[in-house]
Amino acid sequence: MMGYRLISNLAIVKWAFSPPNIELFHTTDRLWEILRNAINKTYNHISDLRKEICHLKKCYNSRAKCNKG
Q1: Do 12 and 35 touch, CB atoms closer than 8 A?
Q2: C-alpha 24: how far from its chain's center?
Q3: Whole-angstrom Cα distance, residue 54 to residue 47?
Q4: DSSP readout, 35-52?
């Protein structure tokens, strides 16, 4: 569901650390795996956004140079 952005990463973290789930941290790796996936998805999304911003800046700068010259 994170892939479709139906659930926010913050909601996942809040759910994982909610009182009913605290005991599960000691008995299963499921919550750790869910948290790891949420963090990885967030990191990848931020990386993609940074690449897009860099690309847009390059396009803007090259167009600005063409308009001046």
Answers
A1: yes
A2: 24
A3: 11
A4: HHHHHHHHHHHHHHHHHH
Helix axes 30-68, 9-16, angle to 10 degrees: 160
Supply the pTM of this predicted model: 0.69
Q: What angle do CA 35, 2, 28 make, to 5 degrees?
A: 30
- pLDDT tens figures, 26-47: 888 999 999 999 999 989 999 9
Tokens of 9: 């990463």
Q: Most distant CA pair in the chain: distance in Å?
A: 66
Which residue shows structure tokens 């847009």?
Answer: 56
